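Notebook B, p. 112. Complex prediction, attempt 2.
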Amino acid sequence: MTGSQRPKLMKYRSFGKTGFKVSKLGFGAMRLPIRWDGSCDYNKSVPIIKLGIDRGINYIDTAHGYIRGTSEVAVGKAIKGYDRSKLFISTKIVQSSSDNVTRFRRRLEESLKRLDTYIDVLHVHGLTWDDFNDYVKGPNGTLEQVRKAQDEGLVKHLAFSSHDSAESIEKLIDTGEFESLTLQYNLLDRHNEEVIALARERGMGVAIMGPLAGGNLGSIRVPGLSESKKMSNIRLGLRFVMLNPNVDVTLSGMNAIGQVEENCAIVSEDDSFTEEENKEIERMVNENKKLADTYCTGCGYCMPCPNGVNIPENFRYYIWYKVWGAEKQAKDAYRKLTPAGRDAPWGARGQWGRVYGKAAYLCVECGACEPKCPQKIPIIKQLKEVAKTLA
Ligand code: SF4
Ligand code: SF4
C-alpha cells in the first residue's frame, strides 16, 4: 500500500509515548467470521481485515485466546504484503493464578508463531490489581518475562487490559510499568472516564474496547429512536467514544465488508456533534441509569456454564426488554433459547449466527459463573429476574 493509495479520510493520533501514530479506528479481530467448528473462516476474515488496512486502519487488536487462537492466525495472514513498519499489532495474553512463568512464555511464543511477526503492543489480558501484585511484578513475574522478550526484539511495548475497578486501574497506571492500556468505555458505561483521562495525562496510549456496549447499542431497532432520524446507534456510539479527546484508538469488532466501510465513513466525519446527536446522547445517558445492575458486556468470561445456560444471551434479551422496551422481541428470543441451538441475530449489527444454550430458568445455582464475571454481576440473582420477566 503506497501513500497515494491510502484513503485520505482516516484520522490518526499519537499513541502516547510509543511514538506511533495510530488510526482513530482500530480493527478488533474478536468477532471475525467463523466456520462450523468455531474456528476462524480465513477465506472471509482475511479480506475484511485487508480492506480495513486499505482504508487506513493501522491498529489491529487480537488476543491469544480470541476464536480459539485462530484470530491471531487470521491477522498474521492479512498483514502479509503490507509495510510492517506502518502497522501496529496488539495482542493479549492472560496471566492467571494457576499460571507460571513457563506457561506465559509458551503462550507468547504461540502468539508470535501465529502472527508470524513481532508484537507492537503486548497486553497482560484482563489484569487486576491483585494479579499484578501476586504474579506480574517481582522476581520471575510476568514483567520480567516481557522485558526479556523486549530485549529479544519480540515485543515493543507493554500494556494491560482490565475490567477491574477504576480505583485498581488507577493503581496499575501509577506503577509506571505500562505504556498503554485498553479499557471498556461507551455511551452506556462511562465509569472508566476518569481513569482514561488519567492515563492520557501520564502519557499512556489509550485504546477503547466495547464502544458499542457489547452489541447493546446496535443489536436492535427501536421504533421512534435514532434509526428513524437517519442516525444509527452505531454511528452515535462510535462517535461518542472517538470524540473523547483522551481516547486514541477505538476498537470495533468487524466481521463484514460493509461494517468496515460504514465505520471508516463514521471516523471521517467532522469532529463535533450535531444538536440532534447531543439530544440522542442525553437520552442514552438516561437509559444508562436503567442498566445499572445488569450491565452485561457479552464478554463470555463466565462461560461455559456446566449446566448449559447461555448467560450472556439471556442478559442480552433482558436488556432489550428493560432498557429498550422491545418486549415482544425479547420474549420471542428468550423462548427460542434451546441447547440444540437456533439461528438468531448476534453482534453489534444484528448479524445472523447460531445461538446455543439454555434459558435462565434452567440455572441450577451452582455458582461456577459468578467469580468469573469482570462486571461483578450477581448472575444467579439476575438470571432469576430474567426468567421472571421474560417467561
Ligand atoms: S450458577 Fe447457573 S448460570 Fe452460573 S454456572 Fe451455575 S448453572 Fe450456570
Ligand atoms: S455475565 Fe459477566 S462474564 Fe458473563 S458475559 Fe456478562 S459481563 Fe461477561
